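Next up, a specimen:

>
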Amino acid sequence: MSDQKRATRRGLLRGAAVGAGAAAAAALPLGAAAQDARVVEADVAVIGMGFAGLVAGLKAAQLGASVAIMDKMPAGDWIGGSMMLSGQIIHVAMASPMLDEDFLRDTITERTAGRPQEPYAELMETYLANVKRGMQWLMDLGVEFEEEPGLELRLKPAKPADYGYAWGKLQPDGDYDYRDYGGYKTAKILETALTDAGANMLYETKAMALFIDELGTVIGVSAVDPEGRLEVHAKATILCTGGYARNKGMSAKYMGPHGEEIPVQSCPGNTGDGIAMALKLGAAMRNNGYSYWWPCPAVVEEDPWHPTLGMRNIDDIATQSIIVIPTGERVCDESEGRFTYGAEMFRRGYVKGLMVFDSTVQEMEAIGPLLERVVEMGGTVYEADSLEELAELAGVAPYLATTVAEFNAAVDDGSIATARVPKKDKQNKIETAPFYGLPFINGTLFHYGGLQINTNGQILDVDEKPIPGLFGAGELIGGSLSGGTVNRFGAYTGHLAGACLTYGILAAESAAALAGIEVAG
């Protein structure tokens, strides 16, 4: 039996367990705490089988490292994590990563003009320098893209967008079963390649704590599987456990008040496990308080897996409407889209709102069918003959009528673009009955905050020094790759898909080198 697959009942490492679970809270010496734990030996331990974890694990195995890769989810439909629910696009500033690097750099500069460049410049530059070889690596494995050679963007087959990624259509056996599209197919290719490479595939295995030696170097992980306690002893450990959006406690702490109320469309495993373990070692978090806002019909508040979850194309309705909070007031320029109004509403303490419009908007070619889909899938659209009646039906303050009157007057006199609460585009007056209201709640695919890394994929402590033996990739490192309300690294890399690929490879190369394996420069 190969070293990476050997399981014994030894506890030979000298160190302490430091993690998020109660079992690890006391940081007991291994010999005292884990006499009966099974032990797996590996050069590289990878925690998480989302897109980043699969990439990191396979790349490390290809380099010659023995790999143990674990995930708390069972084998099956969630392989690849949230990649299945994402747009499954890998890009640089909405352009193919296979285009000329200088052109892509200029495109990023153009798209970020006038905005503070919050993401670390060296991480973006490293991404640019490596994403093309990551794409080629995927294609060499048999991953296909929809576009012609040189213009690759969307994993093949591409997901349809007409229902805005609504869970009711994407779920297994739904009309657009996510298993039929490129994200899942790519994950299965990576999973099969990992198995063929001899990696130890540890499903239903929840990481509980990181082991450190007397010098503070991470030397493995303590875990629990259906058979009991398990230790993975490794020369390098890569955290790829995803973000914390499905952890209500962490969402409240790091997003702020009402963070726990935000509906989430992501893998059920995104509960911040790896982040919590790294924080115990003094890891740094960055860019908390921001999220990838994704409006959903309000019914999602009552059922977190409601079929309308992820129906983000109701943003098309929002931009043609005005949005009011429960007080009946507008708070921002709706025409700027979901990232702007989602962030501004949350800043004011609200995740729920009402899109308000009249029959003129309802009759628009792009809006009418979309409203029908909302109702078809279980959402609510209110219709009323007066604004006062609409406010009562929707449960917002009567001040709604005053807000609409002020908005209409500002449109008429041309001041709305520069008003205290402006609207620079799609200035549709609300004056022709019937009037409509679509109650919604701002959901998310992931929160931007996460751990901080360097260009080698090493996780950094609060002094910006690498934590020895610990690496990270994927959504977990979103803190390094995000930049505030709109301007974020992910917006230029395929909403983290590109970063999962690139930094998964870089973390694997760094981890393999630490394990004593020669890695070509």
Q: What stands out?
A: The two ends are 32 Å apart (CA to CA). The longest strand covers residues 435-447.
